[in-house]
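Hi there, hope your week has been kind to you so far. Do you reckon you could talk me through the fold, stretch by stretch? I've dropped the whole record in just underneath, so have a look:
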Amino acid sequence: MRKNGQHKTINIKRVQFILGTLLLLMLLPTVGFSQTGPKVSAKVDTLAIKIGEQIQYKITVETDSTDIVFFPEGQTFSPLETVEAIMSDTLKNDNKLILQKIYSLTQFDSGAYTIPPQRIAINEQPFFTDSFQVKVADVVVDTTKQKMYDIKPLIEVERSTADMWLTALWILLGLIVVGGLVYWFFLRKKPLTEEEKVALLPPYDRALMELKKLENSKYLIQDEYKQYYSELTDIVRSYLEEDVHVTAMESTTSELITKLEMLRDAGELKLEDDTLEQFQKILQTADLVKFAKNKPATTVAEQDRKLVEEIVTKTHEGLPEPTEEDLLLDEEYLEELARKKQRKRIYWAAAIFAGIIVLGGIGSTIYFGTKKVRDTVFGYPTKDLLESEWVASSYGFPPVQIETPEVLVRQELELPKETEELIKELQAFSYGSYVGIFSVSTSSITFKEQKEEPQFEAVIGSTLSNFEQLGLKNIITKQEEFVTQSGVKGMKTYGTGMLERPNGDSKRAKYNILTFGGKGFVQQVVITWEEDDEYAEQIVERILGSLDVKTQV
């Protein structure tokens, strides 16, 4: 009996010990790990919308104030589209921060969609939200009130002239500047200089003015008699040539006097013998001063100037009155001089304008290169496409979103009977042709059987066979993965080949085949262009940058 009592006592103690140990173990996590980590949650305001309506997707993060949090950015909610991140907020709760961000999502195709889990990085550690099932319903249309119409066909519209007007404006401004410079320096009537004003005076008035100027000169004071008499005789000889029309500048004294006597005897000049004798003496004195270094008295020199002035006046008075024919001849002569002067200005202006164009062309050729200047002046098809107003649109179903220089036109294709049994629908759109200078096309194929993944290799092989049938030889093919701007992955097949034309000509060509798809459908974009066409390369780069596809049927 004693032993049994002891066993019972020992068992009770063991049980108490085990229970105490278990209680301690249960309390240890509470004591040692009382602090909790970051909390991430997400919710939506609705799980059912109509086409085009928006869902408010709210992400809440509760974490320490020292943590660094990164929310989702961009189109991470695909297949739903992110319209915008409409609000973000920060709240404090004791030592915690509550960060909230709301996204506006939508979808334009009816169906059932799954919003994938969203990745939130906290101190570079990933946390994921739950996924949500969303239904997008069609909008019911009452056809009794809202009439239904067929889709309108594509129509040609006039090309935008905005770029053309801008180019024309710059050209006009350039011509205005050049024309202004030409006018200012060559065509405008400039103020006359003193020499030009004197030259425009009648011979008689000019001779008197020059004699007056000689009277006020310092030649006699500075004992420069040779210079004085040289100008004196030049004035009177020049007058006689212009007004009397006698060759006086290159005639000797005796020859000049003889010519004047002949004019007097012929009745074309009324001069007395005393006047001619005085003029002869003055000319002889001038010859002695210029060639024999003779030096007359100052009073004699001054008197000779006065006598020359009288001779000029008497000669002018002795000339017969001009006839109407003489006046007309003089007027025509002056008009011809004006025309010659105007033509000279125009020639100079044209020469300078041509020089500016030539120098500008040479400078542009050196800086930009011959090809770019030639293409800018005379145009080039792919350059015109690159600089045209581009069009962004969706083609086919499932849609291919792409931006192109021209609208892609729907193509009606006939399928072989064996292919028709497999394909439910084929929609194709294109611009240009594979054998042309540039082409781009899209196609969307939906199959009757939507269970298996599409065979990309077969679709790509069919496109390459089409190239060969059109004359592309020695095709080099490379493949790599291609990712659209929204993250959809596809296959990029690219390379070069030699395109042989029916006329025997050949050229190097390049191509890109981009293939996407899923269960029951295939999407393809094909671009072809000439090798070494820098404008086409820029077009292709821009098209690939804009390319996106929908991955649901």
